[in-house]
Protein: Class I SAM-dependent RNA methyltransferase
Amino acid sequence: MKEVFNTQKKVIITCNKRLSPYLQEEVLALGFDIKRLFNTGLELFASLNECIKLNLNLQTASQVLYELASFRAKDPKELYDNLIKLEWENIIPFDGYFSVTSNVHNETITTPLFANVKVKDAIVDRIKDKKGVRPNSGPELSKIVIHLHWMEDRAEIFIDSSGETLAKHGYRKHPGKAPMLEALAASTILATKWDGKTPFINPMCGSGTLAIEAALIAQHRAPGLLRMNYAFMHVIGYDESVFFNERKLLKEKTDKSNIPPIIASDISEQAIGIAKINAQTAGVEHLIDFQVCDFAETTVPDGPGVIMFNPEYGERLGTHSKLEITYKRMGDFMKQECKGYRGYVFTGNPDLAKKIGLKASRRFEFFNGKLDCRLLQYELYDGSREN
Structure:
């Protein structure tokens, strides 16, 4: 098998559903050509060294998968027979550790775990035959991760260069109540086209994810600077100078001057306490003005700027009437106190959204977990619309 770190192969970058347009923007900005875009990711060609750059830079991605081989496999035996031919001894150290993940739709497989075991067996048998020693394997994603994508009779095997998902940016040690995934939060901010120079206001901030992502974006600070372990580091041939050079470039690109006002408020003192701890872990606590207050008392500097709400959606029974009042108050607050801003409300409840009482100028589609959501945009004109 060719030396993977310098050989360009097919790479699949995955993301949560509906985030691929924002992932596409990021990948193009890094100078890569995209071969194919789909709902949960995109495809390009890159070496494993180039995957290091992708892992460190991307805010909206989940995994960066580097293809090793693709072949026909109608059943587990054919899968094993193809996998054992690959030069695993040149990828996984014989005294190393690896794990297997998979996405399988094959009529001969009733559980993906069985497919994972066949992959593991082929790798272990090959390395033991060549080196006389077998590597360890298990469920942790802290070292080498091998990913199987098997649809009908077509199988692809990848190095998952990320390991633990990139969608979590590593600062949220205290998630708080109903947190928004970091990659989703970053995507919603990218959807607003916020310039990182005007105020960003986040009432009802909860554990602070939106405000923290805004602070990272305003600094041009990549989430990869918050993380020191990736799966690619454990593959044979890894050159740590490539990783540290990329980190150096990212540090040089970070601009901590001229950060606009970023204000995060919540009525819960506990929520603000959690948000401050998360912001401190991310290294941005000093850039965010945290306020304990009702959202309608949040400080709003003169516009233009962006104000974004991520209120409760009222999934639980009996919460609707109270939330209807809250959503109406949100609309009144934006209309009266946020003139010159663009207002945004992220919600999974279209009925409650009607209570805002403003006409949305745009609707962006997202999922929060499995829940179908919308980011609603409101133009909050200063004076009449014509002016």
